[in-house]
Write a structure and sequence with these properties.
The strands form four sheets. Strands 5-6-7-8-9-10-11 form a seven-stranded parallel beta sheet. The protein has a four-stranded antiparallel beta sheet with strand order 3-2-1-15. It is 35% helix and 20% strand. It has helices spanning 60-78, 84-89, 97-115, 119-123, 142-154, 170-180, 199-204, 223-231, 245-253, 264-267, 270-282, 296-305, 355-361, and strands at 5-21, 24-37, 42-46, 129-131, 134-136, 160-163, 186-189, 213-214, 236-238, 259-262, 287-289, 329-330, 340-342, 352-353, 362-369. The protein folds into two domains: 5-116 and 353-372, Enolase-like, domain 1; 121-352, Enolase-like C-terminal domain (TIM Barrel, Alpha-Beta Barrel), CATH 3.20.20. α1 (60-78) packs across α3 and α9 runs parallel beside α11. β5 (134-136), α5 (142-154) and β6 (160-163) form a beta-alpha-beta unit. Bound molecules: 2-succinylbenzoate and magnesium ion.
Length: 376
Amino acid sequence: MDINQIALQRIKLPLKSPFETSFGKVTEKDIIIVKAFSDDKVGFAESVAMPYPIYNEETTGTVWHMLEKYLIPQLLDKGIQEPKDVSEMFSYIRRNNMAKAALEMAVWDLYSKLKGQPLSAVLGGKRSEIEVGVSIGIEDSIETLLNRVEGFLENGYKKIKVKIKPGWDLEPVEAIRKKFGDQIPLMADANSAYSLNDKQLLKELDQFNLMMVEQPLAHDDIIDHAKLQAEMKTPICLDESIHSAEDARKAIEINACKIINIKVGRVGGLTEAIKMHDLCEENNIPVWCGGMLEAGIGRAHNIAIASLSNFSIPGDTSASSRYFDEDIILPEVTLSKPGIITVPEQPGIGFDINQELIDKLTVNEQVYKRDTVTFY
Ligand code: OSB
Ligand code: MG
């Protein structure tokens, strides 16, 4: 592949309403758009790091730093044959997975555009449509929460995920079950808000027939999750603890979870995400595609990876309108049927870029050309 230029644009995109988790609240998406240029095509990706190091250790600022100082110069300097060479090239750099993923995903989009094929097919995806769910933040009251659930059920979303934290756990889950019955596909995500000291409370979740409980314990733990899973009927799904296929292998080996949430940013790119997907498939561990409140470009990448066979549980990739009044892709992501997104058939991520909107929202931009940057 002949990549001769990379460009970054940092944008701030307002969220329709604040999104609150056990670790804090966000009101806008702080995004770095990455563009990878060959002679006549451009690949796009979007960094998913939060503005603060509260989900993981990365931030929008550290992603920019890593891209500018290490990742872009090296990619432009050394060049690659195929997208999988990118993760290989960056493997000696510790962590910074969201920074690595942002660049790697732009290369994958470019690669599929050069081949004239949809990204989903290039990644090995076979599905023409994917089932999707929605993630609901911590709300001001049970009543507001129930109203939100009702609206999303009307859209046909195939999985309702509610955020929980100490003081907002059994009560909201019980209220949802009471109002909407035992059959709606419901799960809870704790974002690491509990410890094994809360075992009794977490075990009480078993009575609500949840699809799973996501990351109840520490962000860097698998041992305690294994202890908890041994005593809980509800399947545990890991998110924050799993950064690589190797992490997944270890978690599966000690029975720390029965399901894994794959976020391409968290695991350092699409190549690693496919590796993790395949490993989970071999071990009968279903996966689903998580989200980081992505704007359209990230959403499009999520749709592509979720077309792989072992993404057998509806993911968090909802329609653009779930979070944004206006999206940075054209058309925006919509449900083609209740709870269903059609996987695009156009080359690459399969959506056009709303460059006009991106330019309007830009707070910082930089272009890096081969032969004018040097790798340290
Ligand atoms: O834990 O899955 C999470 C958003 C930001 C950070 C972490 C998480 C989330 C979500 C939202 O749950 C998923 C989405 O709709 O994109
Ligand atoms: Mg999560």
